[in-house]
Structure formats: structure tokens, C-alpha cells
């Protein structure tokens, strides 16, 4: 280093200060470029080593998930953002959202991810599980997929994951510590928040066993994680009920929020109105009475309302606007939703499938 500085002094004496500064500037850029090239090479190596262990379509954008309509799920969105804020941080590390099928959990999850991105606090990783995408229901792919995203999120995480993979792909029992917790501990020193979202745990293969296994591997260690490491997960209520009775899990790291369909009735009604307004060619149709009929049938279920609107719109598009009342009348005559307060929503699948055809994703959130 001394010789380098002496050399710079000699160069400056011979060619002038501005030239030396130009050389230094060029050298700094060269170092930066070489560093970026090395990071890119390291990331490519990680992806190669994780190939076959990662679910490709794991983001909400990969699955074309919709976002919450304006004015809907405002309270829960605010609660989540408050829980994630630095002012709120406690020993709770897992925010668990529960709701029956069709209550809008995945739409809410997608909206949270997008809102955080807009606020320049992006999630470090997201994993949306869907029975329509078989590779996402494989529990063995969750941790490696999250690890790859952590490596993409920060070179610091990439360094740790790269070092681990240089010794070979770790066995299942070591993956949580080596590919997940170790990288996020280091990330927590550099970021205001390290947020990881896993949506629709209940759609995992053999969910009854695997949901508990995944959470058992994270929750005990959660007590020792930095305060700014936070997980958001969603599932149907029965999985939270099972976990809440567990004697092996550290339940103090959890906070639970239930999406109640009863309290969603007004929000679904507003959602229907908002979606109808987007279809400008319908002008003043449907009437307030027809909107109310659709809202009553949806019974607080966002997925039902969205699927119904999709079907109605396509039928009218195919048949022409003159068929609007006929299409709507046919739709409202179908007995579709039977609400059960204790067991959730039971759907007359035969009638619903015949009516909505390919647009109904029966097990979607």
C-alpha cells in the first residue's frame, strides 16, 4: 500500500492532480465491476446447486394473483403493517392469518407483498403455495426456494448460502438453520426488516403433518432471532387450531389473526361494486338490487365474488350485452353457497362447476 501511494505521488508530480484522480476513479469503478461480476457468478453457482430443489412459480406474480380492491381489507392491512413496523416489535416473529377457503387470504398476501414493495421495504422472500402448481405443494421445496430468494436479495446472504452449498446440498434437518436462519441473522444486521411470507400452508402435500413440521423447525429458534426478522403465514383455521394445542412449539412467537366472513360481507359488497365500475361498457348495469343479490350469494367470500364476476363478464362478452339480464338471472337461480358457521363454507361443487366451468379454482384462496 505504501509503495502504491508513493507511486501515485510520483505520477501526480509528473502528470498532474486531475490525471491521478481520473486514474483512481477508473480503478474504483474497476473494483466495483469485478465485485459485481463475482456476486453474479456466486449467485449463478447457487442457482445451479439448487436446481431441482426450487419451485419455479413461487411468487404471486407468477400465479397471476389479484390484489385487494380499493377499500377492502383495510383494517387487516393496517394491522399487518403496524405489526411489521419498528415501533411494534416484540418477541412475536410469526403473524399467522387464518380464514376459510375463499375468504381472500392469497389476495391479501399478494397485496401485502405489493404494498411493502411500494413502501421500499420489499419482502426478502415469498412462497405462494397452490394446488394448481404441483411443485409448490412439495414441502421439500420451501426452504431451498426461500434460500435462493435470500441470495438474490442480498450478497451477504448469498455468501453464506454459497459457502453452505459448496459442501453439498444439506440434509432436510439442517436446511432451516443453514439455508434460512443463518442468512437472515446476517441480513438483520443490514436491513430495517427481514420479512418472509408463506401463503396457503394448508395446500401443502400432506398438510396435516407438514405444516406442523415446518413450524416446529422455525418456531423454537424464533425466540432467538433478531426482532426485525418477521414471518407472515396464512392457512385455513384448522391448522392454527392444531398448532395452538401443541406442547412442542414456542407459541409466544406467534400472533394470530382470523379473517371472519361475517365481517367481510360489506367489504365483498364494495368489492363487487368496484369491479363492476371497472367494466365501463356495462354503463349503469347491474342495478343496486342485482348487486345486492350477488353480494348475498357471495356471503363474505371474496373468491366466490371474483369468480362469479369473471364468469358473468365472459358470458356477456360471448353473447352480447343484450343477454345481460338473462345471464344474471341464470346465475342467481343456481344454488351455490351453503354457509356453515362451524365447518366453514360447503359448496355445491357439481352445480358450481357446471356453471362456472374452467374459471372456478375450487381449492384456491
Automatic annotation (TrEMBL):
Keywords: Membrane, Repeat, Transmembrane, Transmembrane helix. This is NACHT domain-containing protein. Signal peptide: none annotated. The chain crosses the membrane at residues 15-34. Residues 93-237 form the NACHT domain. It comes from Mycena albidolilacea.
Amino acid at each position: 500500500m505504501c509503495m502504491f501511494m508513493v507511486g501515485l505521488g510520483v505520477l501526480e508530480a509528473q502528470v498532474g492532480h486531475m490525471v491521478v484522480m481520473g486514474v483512481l476513479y477508473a480503478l474504483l469503478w474497476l473494483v466495483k465491476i469485478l465485485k459485481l461480476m463475482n456476486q453474479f457468478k456466486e449467485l449463478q453457482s447457487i442457482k445451479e446447486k439448487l436446481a431441482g430443489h426450487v419451485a419455479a412459480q413461487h411468487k404471486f406474480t407468477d400465479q397471476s394473483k389479484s390484489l385487494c380492491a380499493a377499500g377492502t381489507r383495510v383494517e387487516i392491512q393496517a394491522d399487518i403493517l403496524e405489526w411489521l413496523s419498528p415501533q411494534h416489535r416484540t418477541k412475536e416473529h410469526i403473524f399467522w392469518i387464518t380464514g376459510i377457503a375463499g375468504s381472500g387470504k392469497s389476495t391479501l398476501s399478494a397485496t401485502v407483498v405489493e404494498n411493502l414493495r411500494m413502501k421500499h421495504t420489499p419482502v426478502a422472500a415469498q412462497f405462494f403455495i397452490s394446488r394448481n402448481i404441483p411443485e409448490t405443494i412439495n414441502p421439500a421445496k420451501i426452504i431451498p426456494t426461500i434460500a435462493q430468494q435470500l441470495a438474490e436479495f442480498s450478497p451477504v446472504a448469498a455468501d453464506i448460502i454459497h459457502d453452505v452449498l459448496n459442501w453439498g446440498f444439506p440434509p432436510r434437518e439442517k436446511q432451516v438453520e443453514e439455508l434460512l436462519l443463518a442468512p437472515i441473522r446476517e441480513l438483520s444486521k443490514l436491513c430495517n426488516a427481514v420479512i418472509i411470507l408463506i401463503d396457503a400452508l394448508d395446500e401443502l402435500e400432506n398438510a396435516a403433518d407438514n405444516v406442523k413440521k415446518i413450524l416446529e423447525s422455525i418456531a423454537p429458534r424464533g425466540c432467538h432471532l433478531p426482532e426485525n426478522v418477521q414471518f407472515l403465514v396464512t392457512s385455513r383455521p384448522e391448522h392454527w387450531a392444531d398448532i395452538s394445542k401443541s406442547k412442542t412449539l414456542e407459541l409466544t412467537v406467534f400472533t394470530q389473526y382470523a379473517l371472519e366472513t361475517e365481517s367481510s360481507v360489506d367489504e365483498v359488497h364494495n368489492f363487487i361494486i368496484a369491479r363492476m365500475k371497472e367494466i365501463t361498457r356495462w354503463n349503469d348495469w347491474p342495478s343496486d338490487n342485482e348487486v345486492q343479490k350477488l353480494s348475498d350469494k357471495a356471503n363474505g367470500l371474496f373468491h366466490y365474488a371474483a369468480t362469479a364476476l369473471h364468469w358473468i363478464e365472459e358470458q356477456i362478452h360471448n353473447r352480447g350485452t343484450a343477454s345481460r339480464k338473462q345471464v344474471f338471472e341464470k346465475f342467481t337461480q343456481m344454488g351455490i353457497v351453503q354457509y356453515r358457521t362451524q365447518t366453514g363454507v360447503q359448496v355445491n361443487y357439481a352445480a358450481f362447476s357446471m356453471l362456472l366451468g374452467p374459471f372456478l379454482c375450487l381449492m384456491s384462496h
